[in-house]
Design a protein that fits this description.
With 521 residues, the chain is α/β, with parallel strands linked by helices. The chain has 18 helices and 15 strands. Helix 9 (241-251) links the parallel strand 7 and strand 8 (257-262). It is globular. The protein starts with 6 loop residues before the first helix and ends in an 18-residue tail after the last helix. 55% of the residues are buried.
């Protein structure tokens, strides 16, 4: 039997796996050798700098080509903003909600193309973006700023240009998380969410961006681990034949690649289990199953898939169609020429990205029409970044907003707790009275209300207070009317620099929110 028709080769083409650390490890190499794993996903912990990433991608391709005879999909979550895996020497574009705040779909196209060109130069050929979720639930712990907005037409207006930008760079794009993760209050990395909506409700909101993306020719769509009881009771979408085959393939007409979200997420691992989940996802209609972290689980999954195929539990015609679908996309995208490494973090991209970033800053409430002067004793407050969702990078970032801003602009900086208590708030307020201006960075304060209580207590002082939302702009919804407020959408040094420009009066914040932030005018 030819290598390309061996059971291991076929199973390996249907899987995507990952590993820890910046180099291929022995367990992962053995996994590829045994099960001919043909596709790899990378995370922040796999990347230290652009030279290392280029070398790692070369090593991956060499290993996979040697073992399978076909190049690998090398995938990454480089959405921009809050979900960015690339190192600081590459260009990190703003996230979806920030880009949409600019009000110009061309910005989404440019962000996609810049990102795609740099990924291809680095050896990554598959970007798990754009996010097609409509963030209709502001208590959503996992999507939020990763969505372009709270209305399907907003998501369509910006996600499709992002997709085209990626495609024009030669990078495979993937819309996610089908059939929609925007109206959940549970993170599927931690538990199994339920969205109890009728098909009509889903078609009018959640499904609309996916339908538009299908019609625009999106090459891949990622499934979500969410139960939609009015469509298929008790089965998460990833494992539901009604949803993946009946709805996405047959009703919506999608002919591209269906891939799962990671099957090690607790929504699957703590219910049917990862190994059984991979088999069930393939039976449901997935082409590519993702086991992102653990080689032993990936190996056990590969074995289970092979056994199910040989036992006749998996439809052989569908299996062959999936293999052809994967091969066709590899032949198309993976043979496209890659740009030179000099484009990564280039001066041209840096300038274009800075322009994008400055245009994302969104004034929410500006009493008197302008932000207050910082004066000679500004006081900067705010919590260090924490892992707001499991899809975020590990929260070991030394970057702390108040300390960064104090060093850049003068004055004092003090790191606050992520959810300060009454006693902690009282102590901070006592220390703030002598300030000429108080600037507070919030980070998911709408879910950690102590942050917002702190801002409102500071607003009672006879000192101007500016609140800057460094993730979800919903933080700014319930603040005192005399607080100046600004949405910055991300907790990064480049966002802090852009905020500093606004506070110094050097630049103007011109963004417009795509979600409801002010409920009282």
């Amino acid at each position: 039997m030819e290598a390309n028709s061996s059971l291991a080769y076929q199973v390996g083409q249907r899987m995507m796996a990952g590993f820890d650390g910046p180099k291929l490890d022995d367990k992962f190499i053995e996994l590829v050798k045994k099960w001919k794993i043909g596709n790899v996903v990378l995370f922040k912990w796999n990347i230290t700098d652009m030279e290392q990433l280029r070398e790692l991608c070369d090593d991956i391709q060499q290993l996979v080509l040697q073992e399978t005879g076909k190049p690998a999909f090398i995938a990454i979550d480089q959405e921009g903003g809050a979900v960015s895996r690339l190192s600081d020497d590459a260009t990190r574009v703003p996230g979806a909600m920030a880009i949409a705040a600019i009000g110009d779909p061309e910005s989404a196209y440019n962000a996609g193309k810049m990102t795609g060109l740099e990924l291809r130069a680095l050896g990554v050929n598959f970007n798990l973006a754009p996010v097609l979720d409509v963030n209709s639930n502001d208590a959503n712990p996992v999507i939020g700023v990763r969505s372009y907005g709270e209305k399907p037409e907003t998501v369509i207006r910006y996600a499709l240009p992002m997709m085209r930008g990626l495609d024009d760079s030669g990078t495979l794009s993937c819309g996610k998380h089908f059939p929609g993760h925007g109206d959940t209050s549970v993170d599927s990395h931690l538990a199994l969410p339920v969205v109890d909506k009728t098909m009509d409700e889903l078609r009018s909101v959640e499904l609309a961006p996916f339908q538009a993306a299908v019609e625009a020719g999106i090459p891949a769509i990622m499934t979500s681990h969410i139960v939609f009881p009015q469509v298929d009771p008790g089965k998460p979408a990833t494992l539901s034949r009604k949803i993946l085959t009946g709805l996405l393939r047959e009703e919506m007409g999608f002919q591209g690649l269906i891939m799962t979200d990671c099957l090690e997420m607790k929504a699957i691992q703590h219910t049917v289990g990862t190994v059984k989940g991979t088999v069930e996802a393939i039976k449901a209609g997935s082409d590519l199953v993702l086991v992102s972290h653990t080689a032993d689980l990936a190996s056990a999954s590969a074995e289970a898939i092979g056994q199910a195929l040989e036992a006749g539990e998996i439809d052989r015609e569908e299996w062959e169609r999936s293999l052809r679908r994967i091969a066709a996309l590899k032949d198309d995208y993976l043979n496209r020429p890659a740009p030179d490494m000099s484009i990564v973090g280039s001066e041209a991209h840096r300038r274009e990205n800075l322009d994008l970033l400055e245009r994302t800053l969104t004034p929410i409430r500006v009493p008197g029409g302008r932000f207050p002067a910082l004066g000679d004793r500004p006081y900067f407050l705010g919590c260090p970044v924490f892992r707001a969702t499991q899809v975020s990078n590990l929260a070991d970032d030394p970057l702390i907003f108040p300390l960064y801003m104090a060093e850049k602009l003068g004055g004092r900086g003090e790191a606050t707790p992520s959810n300060p208590t009454e006693d902690e708030i009282k102590a901070i307020v006592e220390r703030a009275g002598e300030a000429s201006c108080i600037v507070v960075g919030t980070y998911n304060g709408h879910l950690y209300q102590g942050q917002l209580e702190l801002v409102n207590r500071l607003a009672a002082l006879n000192v101007p207070v500016v609140a800057v939302a460094l993730r979800n702009p919903y933080d700014l919804r319930s603040l005192s009317p005399n607080v100046w407020s600004l949405a910055a959408y991300e907790y990064t040094d480049q966002a802090f620099d852009a905020v500093a420009g606004v506070l110094q009066g050097k630049t103007e914040a011109l963004g417009k929110p795509t979600v409801t932030v002010l409920t009282n005018g």
